[in-house]
Amino acid sequence: MSYKTQKGTVYLIGAGPGDIKLFTLKAKEILEQADVIIYDNLVNADSLNWCKKTAKKIFVGKSSGQHSIPQSEINSLLVEESNSEVSIVRLKGGDPLIFGRVTEEIQALEAANIPYEIVPGITAAIACAAYAGIPISERDTSSSIIFLTGHENPEKNTLNLDFKNYAKTNSTLCIYMGIGQMKRIIDELTEGGLNPNTPVAIVENGTHPSQRSCYGTLSTIVEVSTEQSIKAPSIIFVGSVIALKGKSDWFESRPLFGKKIVVPRSRQQAGELTHLLEHYGAEVMEIPFINIVPKYEKTTIADVFAEIASYEWIIFTSANGVRYFFELFFKAFEDLRSIGLCRIAAVGNATAKDIKAHNLKVDLIPDSANSQALCDALLENESLDNTKILLVTGDKNSDSLYQRLEKEGRAIVDRLPLYENTKPNLETSKAFQKFKEMGADAVLFTSSSTVKHYAEAVKTLDLSGHKNPLFGSIGVRTTETLKDYAMPVAFESPKANLEHFVVETISHFKK
Q1: In terms of domains, do 310 and 371 share one?
Q2: Based on the structure, what is the number of domains in the chain?
Q3: 255 domain-assigned
Q4: Tell me: the pLDDT tens digits for 474-506?
Q5: What's the pTM value of the predicted model, to 2 decimals?
Q6: Residues 116 and 136 in one domain
Q7: Domain contains 35
Q8: Same domain, yes or no, for 372 and 473?
């Protein structure tokens, strides 16, 4: 049973260190139900996609060019937003009880008699150590772990701690927010008696695809980290256990680690490809060069659904069509059996996967993920004479599939367009702004339409001085379109599916 939130309650939640898969199940369940979310800048923004559409989202972190919102204002905001009709999530990076200033927020809530709950998260030190392969405790060399902060109050840059008091040889020091004060911290630890050869590690952007690890000793780490331009947010580890680090960097040695890859689709469209790339370590920039929105005629829907059980084949040309079709279908029918005894065809495995999610069998998937290959397979293996077919499409689908089914197959074909491709406003896309500033290692095109929209969007961009991306193609048709736009194809997937496309991407970068 999932967790049930209470109206009028504030949930103080730790969002973990950055990797969205380290979010706790309880935190996710509460976030999905919350009416108001007040969140910091170190929270993985993808977690906000779990929120319900009606949720009010309030950013209170520090963004580029802006100072942090004072803690007193955040306390007041929590009280102001609270009432008996809403549940509120206060979402913090890491764990709210570890350098998260949650005590001040608790005091404000208690003063206003507002009920609250605390949901812990994985704190950055534990996660960064794990993702760097550092055992921060070891019974023979480190019998204690000490969490320290480089500055106690983020609104000032001074230290109250005397680090000489923490120069302990049998402890592992985990120092948060210490990059700006690192030289002073290192000097005090040395003055306190720690051997200058004591190992030190710094993990920047821990658990993120952009994670970097830096290693040295108390005597060398300032110089080494400066040479590598290590920046915040970072955790500094000091102690002999760092020498026990495993030989392999399990996180940073993944085959696509360090590669910036553009997926020219929104998260809703690119989810599976993004997950595969991130699994292998890539930093993915999802840029919605195509915006898919529902568009259909109500009278056409009514006519089709009135005859839905009479179709012998339903053909889905995309996963978008599958999603919008079943959204409408279940508004009209309560029972999946209302679809009748039709057979189902899908252009590609991704489309078929979404159909199968509705516990329906897919009778035909062509070897190549394009509509012409599907038509060839139907004409070759089926007698379509007077066969009634429903063709579920979008507004940009080619007429050739419809025409071939009618003319060559002599089938009776009803077209059901359910969505359209529109041109998005890329200036609102943070990923696109990042791409303009930094470039990328590759752009992976999954369709001809993504090529067209990408070419149109970047034709006036000056990417000189940045990484000039390579172009990968999922299949023959997409490659042809890339060539039409004079965009050199670096590699093409041997089979037109996402798994083979990602494997080919890995193989290319291994060369």
Answers
A1: yes
A2: 4
A3: no
A4: 988 899 999 999 999 999 999 888 899 999 999
A5: 0.81
A6: no
A7: yes
A8: no
The tens digit of pLDDT for each residue in 160-174 reads 789 999 998 889 999
Q: What is the DSSP string of 433-499?
A: HHHHHHB-SEEEE-SHHHHHHHHHHHTT---TTSB--EEEESSHHHHHHHHHTT--EEEE-SSSSHH
Asked if residue 116 and residue 89 are part of one domain, the reply reads yes
Catalytic machinery residues: 40, 62
Q: ∠ CA 180-183-188 to the nearest 5 degrees?
A: 120
Where residue 391 sits, what CATH number does that domain have?
A: 3.40.50.10090
**Are residues 289 and 421 in contact, defined by beta-carbon separation less than 8 angstroms?**
no
493 and 460 share one domain: yes
With CA atoms as reference, report the closest residue to 325 among 248, 394, 243.
Answer: 394
**Which residues contact residue 419 at a Cβ distance below 8 angstroms, ignoring those fewer than 6 apart?**
292, 293, 294, 295, 296, 320, 321, 324, 394, 395
Q: Point out the least confidently predicted range of 34-43, 166-175, 314-323, 425-434.
A: 425-434
Whose CA is closest to 145, among 131, 134, 133? 134
- Residue at 295 is within a domain: no
Specify the DSSP element, H or E, that contains 184: helix 182-191
CB 349 within 8 A of CB 498: yes
- Is 5 among the domain residues? no
Place of tokens 């007193």: 72
Which residue bears the tokens 């680690």? 257
Average pLDDT over residues 348-377: 88
**Does residue 227 contact residue 237 with C-beta atoms inside 8 Å?**
no
- CB of 260 within 8 A of CB of 285? yes
Do residues 310 and 284 share a domain? no
| Alpha carbon distance 313, 310 (integer Å) | 9
How much is the pLDDT for 470?
95
Final residue in a domain of this structure, among 122, 152, 172? 122
